[in-house]
Specification:
- Helix 4 links the parallel strand 3 and strand 4.
- The protein has one domain: Aldolase class I (TIM Barrel).
- It is globular and about 75 Å long.
- The termini are far apart.
- The chain contains eleven helices and eight strands.
- Helix 1 runs parallel beside helix 3.
- Helices cover 54% and strands 17% of the residues.
- With 214 residues, it is an alpha/beta fold.
- Bound molecules: SN-glycerol-3-phosphate.
- The site of SN-glycerol-3-phosphate (G3P) has 9 residues, from helix 7.
Length: 214
């Protein structure tokens, strides 16, 4: 299972990358805005640190605008993945870009049929937002299971990238369902590692070590 960080904050990305278990990065306009930096600065910082796929989102909502933005974004690096919203023109752009060999991450997916259409358009990744579904009393992880099943039925190559992950249980269920990727906020990456029994066990080992005659 691949682990991406869902962040545009270079300090978070660097710290996660230093652990050696980071496979890629996803960003979105809200995450970029939070940094207070220009988009170009953010992109260059991230690409200096990460070799794996880095998703950069277009902000145009029409086909021509998306294609223009994608043309500019791919120039930043070979590992750039174009993130495109799951709207009609977005599907059209996904098809056109994937036909040209450009990797597309189709974002803002909230239904299994949206995911099916994105796969048919050649998306490299589909990003279903589980946390935002949970927020409105829908079962976000049920959507992941449905997409994994549908893609399995028809052998689609599109990778299921679980997005809007809010807690370690989302990650656990995604892994059990066989999702290809989870993109996880920095805070949740920390939660994946932490266990109180590990901490107290280590404390005890270190205290006992002090008693060993030196
Ligand atoms: O990057 C897309 C997605 O992960 C956003 O998550 O927490 O804003 O719903 P969130």
């Amino acid at each position: 299972m691949k682990l991406f960080i869902d962040s545009a904050d270079i300090n978070e990305i660097r710290e996660a990358a230093e652990m050696g278990v980071l496979d890629g990065v996803t960003t979105n306009p809200s995450l970029v805005a939070k940094t207070g930096k220009t988009f170009e600065t953010v992109v260059k910082e991230i690409l200096e640190v990460v070799d794996g796929p880095v998703s950069l989102e277009v902000v145009s909502t029409d086909f021509e605008g998306m294609m223009r933005e994608a043309d500019d974004l791919v120039k930043y690096g070979e590992n750039v993945v174009i993130k495109i919203p799951l709207i009609r023109d977005g599907i059209k752009a996904t098809k056109a870009l994937s036909d040209k060999g450009v990797k597309v991450n189709v974002t803002l997916c909230f239904s299994p049929m949206q995911a099916l259409i994105a796969a048919k358009a050649g998306a490299a990744y589909i990003s279903p937002f589980v946390g935002r579904l949970d927020d409105i009393s829908h079962d976000g992880m049920e959507l992941i299971q449905q997409i994994v099943d549908i893609y399995g039925n028809y052998m689609f190559d599109t990778e299921v990238l679980v997005a809007s992950v809010r807690n370690p249980i989302h990650m656990l269920e995604a892994a059990l369902m066989g999702a290809d990727v989870a993109t996880v906020p920095f805070k949740v990456i920390g939660q994946l590692i932490k266990h109180p029994l590990t901490d107290s066990g280590l404390q005890q080992f270190l205290a006992d070590w002090e008693k060993v005659p030196k």
